[in-house]
Amino acid sequence: MKPVRKAVLPVAGLGTRFLPATKAMPKEMLTVVDRPVLQYVVDEAIEAGIEQFVFVTGRNKGVIEDHFDMAFELEDTLERRGKDDALATLKRELPAAGTVSFTRQQAPLGLGHAVWCARHLVGDEPFALLLPDVIIKNEKGALAQMMDVYGNHGGNVIAVEEVPEDQTHQYGVVEVEDAGSAGNVYSVTGMVEKPPQGSAPSNLIITGRYILQPSIFALLEKQETGAGGEIQITDAMLRLMKDEGFKGLKFDGTTYDCGSKIGFLSANVAYGLDREDLGAPFRKAIADLLG
What number is the average pLDDT over the span 39-43? Predict the structure, then answer.
């Protein structure tokens, strides 16, 4: 069983739900407190042991490349002004040379197509796929929890969580054969993207974290367009499931969908309250606002 060392992060989306803020600023670089949403996701991957990052970008995403590069003028200015803490933060979060790669998704053809665009940089290795607008808050990151499952079972691993049954039509939902078990690891037997209300096979939804075998690239190459005229990763995973096992991990943690305004605002509140330097005054400010 090969180790998982690489991660794919599809960051080519337009971020239309956050216009006009995302007209010139990638949605992945919007900040939760004082750090880009994307940085939280990268940190989760680093904690899980990921060594190489493949960003699938699009037009007007150059600022993402700049964020993961040195900023000579800024660092020089900070050093000359004695801003040691800020300088240390920049250097601590700078990826090691050669660990970050970028490739282009020239057309918005879906998540499956974005993953396929990373095929040459991933090669014949299992890889993690992390959706960059989903933050999962927990002492131990969701991907690190998934790595434990992968170490025990191999194959493919999907992060899942429970939602109320009247919300399942909004998500990708998995079918599992051992839903009644007391554990948090399930054998996945099916998936359906946004099933009609009342028809979902379970209330376990896919939550933006995957560990996938490289055999999915050959399937994506021949994958026909699905919902929305896009190449769907779910369709390819269903085909892969016929030959390879899939596990679903009901992870520990709280999910914030930063692709939605409510999720983004909630993340700012949750992370702000959790900060030692901000929590107490922020709590008071919120109490004052609420009257």
Answer: 96
Residue 230 has pLDDT above 90, yes or no: no
13, 107, 136, 252, 291 from 174: Cα distances, Å: 24, 28, 19, 18, 43
Neighbouring C-alpha atoms within 13 Å toward the C-beta of 214: 16
CA 54 to chain centre: 13
Dihedral angle of Cα 138, 143, 147, 153, to the nearest 10 degrees: 100
8 Å CB contact between 192 and 171:
no
DSSP state of 207: E
The model's pLDDT over 5-37, given as tens digits with 9 standing for 90+, comes to: 999 999 998 888 999 999 889 999 999 999 999
Q: What is the token pair recorded at 155?
A: 């194959």
Query: Which residues have CB under 8 Å from 207's CB, separation 6+?
Result: 134, 136, 142, 159, 160, 161, 251, 255
What's the mean pLDDT when you consider all of the chain?
Answer: 91
Q: For the full predicted model, state whether its pTM sits above 0.85.
A: yes
Location of structure tokens 């933006």: 208
Please state, in angstroms and rounded to a whole number, the distance separating the CA atoms of residues 20 and 254.
Answer: 28
Cis before 132? omega within 30: no
Phi, psi of 255 (to 5 degrees): -95, 135
Residue that is written with structure tokens 């007007």 in the block? 60
